[in-house]
TrEMBL record:
GO molecular function, one term: ATP binding
Annotated TM spans: none
CC annotations in GO: cytoplasm
Coiled coil region boundaries: 313-347
Protein's name in the database: tyrosine--tRNA ligase
Organism: Guillardia theta (Cryptophyte)
Documented EC number(s): 6.1.1.1
GO biological process: tyrosyl-tRNA aminoacylation
Catalyzed reaction equations: tRNA(Tyr) + L-tyrosine + ATP = L-tyrosyl-tRNA(Tyr) + AMP + diphosphate + H(+)
Length: 347
């Protein structure tokens, strides 16, 4: 009987919702959601965020939302809040290091800090989401939504969208369904204060150093480049990276140099002997792909140049970490977590 009574209760009508996060300007908001926290942030994750932020129209306010409490709910980083916080600190420092001009125009919002601006309003919104949708519909956001924490995080995502009230959400294909659940909630409950956001789908940067058919079996640390990798690690990993002559369908070195160098407006310098075509500077990814596909550019010439360029990109992050106490602390926290995890695996 008590359960039935709760079901009939009305907490706060959806029409009473308000935007929790006040923007300094009246510009439409272009929102990018960072992935759940991980101690092993990949170069692909970093460059995907950059790519999604860069797609914002000039007249939009760019927002990067870091879901730290949702990460805790799904047990990211074993639920260690210090590590989760360190992940997002490291991510933000890395973004600032490699794209300082872009990040000047980005409003970074940490989920926990935004929620604490008005926790009652936020959690009532999330409870209302749970009351509106059946469990199966929330779980359908992700086939892996089996635990209570994952379901709560999916409902919190709707609360996040309501808190930001974005005009557009830039999303990877994998996250599209989660954003659409938020859009459906706004439509179905007839929220009038917050417009239904558009969902702009953009593919992420695939930074895996091997093609899918070679990724079977246990995960290998050399299959990705991580933000904590030293210069030696980058060199070793790219030397082993899959790079088949003429194969442009899956060529990790080309993918990485496009994401880290060419899309940033820089060129890739190829140094080689005259009999092999001589030196060349690529400023267009189309030209580079065309030459590699035709055989005019050989893996033996491409890989060393890409390694040098990607490591220079990573060095920007290393230099910022060295010069920033908060970044140093975040790096130490992540390394310590990974060290403990590795030791635990050996037992």
């Amino acid at each position: 009987d008590q359960a039935m009574q709760w079901k009939k209760e009305t907490l706060v009508p959806p029409k009473g919702l308000k935007r929790l996060v006040a923007m300094q300007s009246s510009k439409p908001v272009w929102c990018v959601f960072a992935p759940y926290a991980t101690a092993e942030i990949t170069l692909g994750q970093l460059t995907s965020i950059i790519r999604h932020l860069q797609q914002a129209p000039a007249d939009h306010q760019k927002v990067l939302w870091c879901p730290d409490w949702s990460s805790f709910a799904v047990n990211s980083c074993n639920g260690e809040q210090k590590v989760i916080s360190a992940c997002y600190s490291m991510m933000i420092e890395a973004l600032t290091a490699v794209m300082p001009d872009l990040m000047k125009d980005v409003k970074v919002l940490i989920q926990s800090e935004a929620i604490l601006l008005d926790p009652s309003q936020y959690w009532i919104s999330v409870i209302n989401v749970g009351r509106h949708f059946q469990l199966q519909r929330v779980r359908a956001v992700d086939e892996a939504n089996e635990t209570a924490g994952q379901v709560i995080a999916a409902m919190m995502h709707v609360g996040d969208v309501l808190a930001i009230a974005p005009s557009t959400i830039c999303s990877s294909p994998a996250a599209k369904v989660a954003h659409e659940l938020a859009c459906d909630y706004i439509k179905e409950t007839e929220v009038t204060e917050i417009a239904v956001p558009a969902v702009h789908v953009s593919p992420p940067v695939d930074s895996a150093l091997k093609p899918p058919h070679m990724m079977d079996g246990p995960a290998n640390a050399d299959d990705e480049i991580y933000l904590l990798d030293a210069s030696m690690d980058v060199g070793r990993k790219l030397k082993r990276a899959f790079c088949e002559p003429g194969n442009v369908e899956h060529c990790p070195p080309i993918t990485l140099v496009d994401a880290c160098v060419i899309s940033a407006g820089k060129g890739l310098a190829i140094n080689r002997k005259e009999e092999n075509g001589g030196d060349k500077n690529y400023v267009s990814i189309d030209d580079l792909v065309a030459d590699f596909k035709s055989g005019a550019l050989h893996p033996g010439d491409l890989k060393p140049s890409v390694t040098k360029a990607v490591d220079a990109y990573m060095q920007l992050i290393r230099d910022r970490v060295k010069a920033n106490d908060a970044a140093k602390k975040a790096e130490a926290e992540l390394k310590n977590f990974l060290k403990k995890a590795a030791a635990k695996k050996k037992k």
